[in-house]
């Protein structure tokens, strides 16, 4: 019997899996990638009796591969909070999917394991920019304010590390980062003892300063759009910069467009924090677009579609 753990390479996916394997230890083949690599089930070749666990990638984007895997006789347990489309009815599929705007996969897994590893759920939830939900979840932990701030920083740094057009853009490959985190039951111990945290924190601060130094191409009371250059630092910081800008201006929608070497843009969209809906509907209007209600993206927006995107962005929020 083969086991596969298939997970988004961002904070929510990594921290969801960390909780699950603390509760239910199991050796498995890890299948992950950059945050935008969401069709991960295509890489899985599973057969009768195999077990596949999927975390934080949209079912709708993996429907064909999921159908193939189930038809081959494997069993699949699926945790996610993105738009799923119609969920298949199959005896081999165990689904834990909710699409609430303030509840990510880490909190779904936290419920599944009875809150036993809540600190990791808090890290993943902060990383997904659900600050209020993360703070509520952390209350039973009785953390000092400085400790909660460190968990928030770790979540942001893990999430930051997942952005890029390819793994080569990242400071640490997501599967390697997950294995590093697995050395620690307590995320505060990882922060204290592992040099990876300091490397990610420093990289995040440097890249964010560059991004914030760019001049917005669109600046309105309820909308802000920035274009970042075709550089690894820009691809790394696009999503977390959008999160930071959203936190700083909670009534303003944010769009960051990062130029790609082959033309066009990589797009990150954040709905206003005061009304965290609509980002997924906006991005699904464009090929390669998707995400969740509060935060979504487009993997490749052609240059010719820029004006259409800008108009749709301002109309959406």
Q: Could you characterize what this model shows?
A:
- The protein has 12 helices and 11 strands.
- With 317 residues, it is of the alpha/beta class.
- The protein folds into 2 domains: 3-202, inorganic pyrophosphatase (n-terminal core) (Alpha-Beta Complex), CATH 3.90.1640; 213-316, Diaminopimelate Epimerase, Chain A, domain 1 (Roll).
- A 6-stranded mixed beta sheet has the order 6-7-8-9-11-10, with helices on both faces. Strands 2-1-3-4-5 form a 5-stranded parallel beta sheet, sandwiched between helices.
- Helix 1 (11-23) runs antiparallel to helix 4 (118-127) and helix 6 crosses helix 10.
- The mean pLDDT is 96.
Strand order of the largest sheet: 6-7-8-9-11-10
Tally the helices: what do you get? Answer: 12
Q: Point out poorly predicted stretches.
A: none
Major sheet, described briefly?
6 strands, mixed
Helix content: 40-55%
Distance between the termini: 48 Å
Shape: globular
**In what range is the share of β-strand residues?**
15-25%
Q: What structural class do you assign from the helix and strand content? A: alpha/beta
Mean pLDDT, as a whole number?
A: 96
CATH topology of the largest domain: inorganic pyrophosphatase (n-terminal core)
What is the CATH architecture assignment of the largest domain?
Answer: Alpha-Beta Complex
Number of strands: 11
